[in-house]
Design brief:
The protein has 13 helices and no strands. It is mostly helical. Helix 3 packs antiparallel against helix 10 (210-225).
Length: 294
């Protein structure tokens, strides 16, 4: 009987597993195969070259720039999103009896579901050197206007701000779920012992929400390493040509594939990105397992 149940469950899941393998597993395997070939779209000869593409990546200054910018963006978004989301979730949770609680949640979550390109265009106008409201605000208080999208450092900062604005809503909602699952008896006992609200937050909420913090951190990092549309739109010119100030991994892969026709080389970049994501995922499982043992 047990074997029949397992067979029934396997047969029921087989169509879904087949679709998942075709949509997810097969492209990953094919990318690994392409990364080991000199795969040029315009050439019929696509020889096997082993790890030559990866060796070239190590000496490619554009790849190193893209990897550095992507890493800075990913960890910058993480450092902004996690603390801010935790504080905002705590404030909203303690105002759940307010009639505006639902409005607060919706207002914070809306940026997460807004389409990337229109949102990036709006922020591009905000950062505009001549007509943007940010420079107008700086000028009104006595600061000099800045060329936000043309400075190599400030343009990366602009991408971090945009990505943090979009990632914040999801993190807040996840933290809210965590706050609602915490035992209220601990907070009542701490309040009776004279603990202030900041003390209860720091010594109770933060440690108890550590598993959720780990989950949100990994999701935020993975999303940060896959950043593309935000950097592309913010750094593009009026004709839509991609800018050179914010080079990220996904943009570098697309340029190598469809502009330079070096599909095999771009596939090796995708493999590196896959390795980064897998490492971050393994770190998440390791930390969660250690948390469970403790």
């Amino acid at each position: 009987m047990q074997r029949k149940r397992w067979m029934f469950a396997l047969l029921a899941l087989l169509p879904t597993l087949a679709i998942f393998a075709f949509v997810r597993i097969y492209p990953i395997g094919d990318t690994l195969r392409l990364s080991l070939h000199k795969w040029d779209i315009l050439s019929k000869n696509k020889p096997f070259i082993g790890f030559a593409n990866f060796e070239e990546l190590a000496s490619d200054p554009l790849f190193r720039e893209a990897l550095l910018n992507t890493t800075i963006i990913a960890f910058g978004v993480l450092l902004i999103t996690i603390p801010l989301a935790l504080v905002l979730a705590a404030l909203i949770y303690h105002r759940t009896r307010s009639r505006l609680a639902g409005f607060y949640e919706a207002a914070i979550f809306i940026p997460h579901v807004v389409s990337l390109v229109p949102a990036a265009m709006a922020w591009k106008w905000i950062f505009d050197a001549r007509l943007g409201p940010l420079n107008a605000l700086l000028t009104s208080v006595g600061f000099a206007p800045r060329s936000w999208l043309f400075d190599p450092v400030l343009s990366v900062l602009c991408v971090i701000v945009l990505c943090s604005w979009q990632a914040l809503g999801y993190a807040v909602i996840i933290y809210l779920v965590g706050f609602k699952s915490l035992p209220t008896s601990l907070y009542e006992a701490a309040e009776l012992d004279g603990a202030s609200a900041p003390q209860r937050f720091w010594h109770l909420s933060v440690p108890l929400l550590k598993p959720i913090t780990l989950y949100v951190s990994v999701v935020t990092l993975v999303s940060g390493f896959n950043v593309y549309a935000q950097a592309f739109v913010l750094a593009s010119d009026a004709q839509g040509a991609p800018g050179r100030q914010v080079r990220v991994l996904v943009l570098d892969m697309l340029e190598n594939s469809f502009r330079n026709y070096r599909v095999g080389y771009a596939a090796s970049e995708a493999v590196v990105l896959l390795g980064i994501v897998l490492i971050l995922t393994l770190v998440q499982f390791r930390m969660l397992r250690e948390k469970g043992r403790s």
